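Standup notes
- DV: blocked on the single-chain target, sequence here:
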Amino acid sequence: MQRLALIAPALLLLPLLPALAAAATAAPIDPALFDARGADVRSFTKEADIAAPAAAVYALWTDAAAWQGLMGEPSRANLDLEIGGRYEWLFDGNIGSNGCQVLSYIPGRMVSFSWNAPPGQATRERHTWVVVETIETAPGATHVRLTHLGFGQGPDWDQTFAYFDQAWGRVLPMMKANLEGGSR
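- DV (later): unblocked, structure below
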């Protein structure tokens, strides 16, 4: 009888196990991975107007299947839309933004995530962050604003800054072409 008294409360937790397992995909965000602090943060912004519904544009940033449809094989993504969830774009199926995480989101409107430099760059193990806002400007029309922040100082960070300034300048037009019926 005493054993049953000890086990009964634990049995009440059984229905919660699936929810607890689902929540286990998120991980704590480690601020030590970021160099930038305070209000004066090195950043740049890219913007695009896309003739597509805001939901479709937002999905490219938050839905793994939509992202893979844009990028094609062998690319894949691990996107867990929850604070601390995975935010990994794996361009060759294995390497990309490994270890990056969702930092915040407003469903259908904004997502922010940590980001790292490509392999081979000295800043690879450090993180910056990206904020993507999707703003419906008219039915079937969306304005996208991408702000990439948190670059450190020095020649290695200068290289990373220049790389992403150019890379995001290619990604937004690629998304625009894809959503507007053009090619990648």
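- Follow-up: The chain has a mean pLDDT of 88.
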